[in-house]
Amino acid sequence: MPIRKPRISKVSINFIVFGVFLSCFPGCILSATVTLGSIVIYDTHEFIKGVKPIVYFTCQGENKTVFPDVKEKNVSYEFKGEESWQPLTEFSSKKCKRCGLYEKDTFKSDDIFDEWELCPSDFDSSDGKYVRFKSKEFNASFSCPKCLPAASPDSKSATVAHKEEKKNGWHIVLVILIVVIVLVVCIVGGVVAHKFWQKKKREQDQARFLKLFDDGDDIEEELGLDHVI
Ligand SMILES: *[C@@H]1O[C@H](CO)[C@@H](O)[C@H](O)[C@H]1NC(C)=O
Ligand SMILES: *[C@@H]1O[C@H](CO)[C@@H](O)[C@H](O)[C@H]1NC(C)=O
Ligand SMILES: *[C@@H]1O[C@H](CO)[C@@H](O)[C@H](O)[C@H]1NC(C)=O
Fold first, then answer.
1. 73 lines ligand 2 (CB under 6 A)
2. Rounded to an integer, what distance in angstroms lies between the CA atom of residue 188 and that of residue 126?
3. H-run or E-run covering 97
4. pTM beyond cutoff 0.85
5. Within 10 A of 148 (CB to CB), how many other CB atoms are there?
6. 198 CB under 6 A from ligand 1?
């Protein structure tokens, strides 16, 4: 049993790295256009009856998209998504945008049909549609098929798991790094200590040898003198 443990953790490291690699792609490079599928306006905000409304859509900081055909109340306008003024906006990340439907007003500031946070995760039906309905104002359906992979509940939980995996991944990388540093320090320290010990031993041997030589000389001298005398 204890032998199996490291193998499992190795496999899970591989899995985490692979998972992070895979799950990063759809999340990092989300480029999804939003188009208008259909719209009905129930009311206009014009004081002078008979004046055709100018209805437009815009997101904060972006260009206005005027719907040139939407002029009558209670008429359902259907669009293919390929009209000259489409798409309405584009998502480059999972971040929401502050968007709205407005009516141009010649005399005062533009009237607001509605203003809301438009999020890629709103397009969660199987065909990537999102219906915005406001009582007595309008009913509009928006389409964003490419928002789907980023918005499905599966990938939402995957995002959380992905974050968790990433955290674990970093943790493991840090541990490996520390182990490697400690190993390198130990090896270098061992080599240096060994070299030092060798040098010291050599010096000691040399000193002992020289001392032996000196002692021998002295004895020889003494012996020599003895002979002469
Ligand atoms: C907004 O409109 C201007 C000119 O009408 C155009 O140059 C610009 O690229 C547009 N910006 C976006 C984000 O569509
Ligand atoms: C639009 O339809 C609603 C019911 O769907 C009705 O109450 C309203 O009077 C109609 N308005 C016009 C201008 O036809
Ligand atoms: C709004 O429009 C959508 C799509 O056209 C439709 O399915 C839905 O029933 C409408 N809702 C209301 C309240 O009219």
1. yes
2. 61
3. strand 97-103
4. no
5. 19
6. no
